[in-house]
Structures are given as C-alpha cells and as structure tokens.
Amino acid sequence: xxxxxxxxxxxxxxxxxxxxxxxxxxxxxxxxxxxxxxxxxxxxxxxxxxxxxxxxxxxxxxxxxxxxxxxxxxxxxxxxxxxxxxxxxxxxxxxxxxxxxxxxxxxxx
Length: 109
Prior knowledge:
The protein is mainly α. It contains four helices and two strands; from the N terminus they run ββαααα.
C-alpha cells in the first residue's frame, strides 16, 4: 500500500491539519487484512474503476454498493458534439464577417 491508500494507525499521525486545511474526518479505523483479502479488495476496486482504497471502502460501507458507469460512449458523443459546434461556429463567423456564406465555403469547413 502507498501513503495515499491508508494512514498507519498510530497517534503521531493524527494531526488536525492537512496541507494547511483542517481535516473533515477526525477519527481513524485500522483494518488488518490477509494478502488474499487485500487482493480480492483490489480486484473489486479495479472492476469499478476506483484506485483509492479509502474512497472505495467509504463507498462500500456507507452506500452498501459501488456503481460503476462506463462513460466512454458519452465521451465520444461529447467529442462529436464539440466538433459539430466548432464547425457551426466557423460558419457563423464567416456569415457575420462577410454577410453570407456559399455552399463551397461550407464544404471547405
């Protein structure tokens, strides 16, 4: 585990300031796992796309489930929409600059 995943359960690490800001969470929980248990948790984290162990554990304990949404199709749609909006903006600039637009200019854009 790296330092981002968990904090050792020792009193000297229980500071109230982190990066100059007061901690929102003031209590800690220390959990000991076998290598098999840790491996299983890491597999479940990978399945839902969460890399932070503490975030995963909070979601599982507080929400009883973790919902994984594949946003790849949405990202593709947003990319296509951005391209269309860019083309439309270029046409609008030409219309507003020159007072009109020819079909040949639209094909070029």
